Every structure is written in structure tokens, then in C-alpha cells.
Amino acid sequence: MNTNNNEMRYFTLAELAEYNGQDGMPVYVAMDGIVYDLTQSSLWADAKHFGMIPGKDLTINYKACHAGRPRLDMFPIVGYLAKPK
User: Fold this and answer.
1) Sequence-distant (≥ 6) Cβ neighbours of residue 26 within 8 angstroms
2) 57: helix, coil or strand?
3) Fewer Cβ neighbours under 10 Å: the N or C end of the chain?
4) Beta strand residue intervals within the chain, DSSP E
5) Pairwise CA distance, residues 54 & 41, whole Å
6) Are 48 and 7 within 8 A, CB to CB?
7) For residues 33 and 46, what is the distance between their CA atoms, to the nearest angstrom?
8) Whole-angstrom Cα distance, residue 43 to residue 38?
9) Which parts of 13-68 are beta strand (E)?
């Protein structure tokens, strides 16, 4: 797991939605409250992966496809999802 605590931040769902891989934006997804940067993943090069779209909390979708988090552990953690108020 690659983390840099100096750059960690909390994302609201609205803020996370901006990181959708479109118009030069990075590809971020949330899983179990952790936000990962998948920009360098060739599987997300088209800003989607098996019907999943970045910039969202994909916890339920991801768990339906993958057991645990083995593929996400190789990508940088950029922050956490903020709890709704």
C-alpha cells in the first residue's frame, strides 16, 4: 500500500466525482472509505473498467468482482471519503 500522509485529504462524494479521468483529470475511486489513484492503471485507461466509472465509491461494485483488495494495494492512496453530514 502506497500512502503519503503529507498529501492525504478527505473527499466528499461531490469532490471525488471530479476525479473521473476526463479532460486530463486523474482516475480516483473509493473502496471501503479509502480513495485510490488508479491513473496509472492500464485497465482504467478509458476512464472505465468493466462498466465501473471512476470518481465514485465503488465498494459494492468492486466487491462483486474481486475478493479483498489485492489489485488496489499496488496503487497510491490519496485520501479518504468524508462521512456525510
Assistant:
1) 19, 37, 39
2) strand
3) C
4) 2-3, 9-11, 28-31, 34-37, 76-81
5) 12
6) no
7) 24
8) 9
9) 28-31, 34-37
Closest CA to 36 of 83, 65, 76, 66: 76
Overall pTM > 0.85: no
pLDDT for position 71:
74
Q: Among 84, 85, 81, 23, which Cα is nearest to 56's? A: 81
Structural domains of the chain sorted by starting position, each given as residue range(s) with its CATH number in brackets: 2-81 (3.10.120.10)
pLDDT confidence band for 1 (50 / 70 / 90): very low
Query: All 3 cell numbers of residue 2?
Result: 502506497
Alpha carbon distances (Å) from 65 to 25, 26, 52, 53, 82 = 25, 23, 11, 14, 25
Between the CA atoms of 59, 25, 37 and 79, what dihedral angle is there, to the nearest 10 degrees? -80
Dist. CA 74–CA 24, nearest whole Å: 22
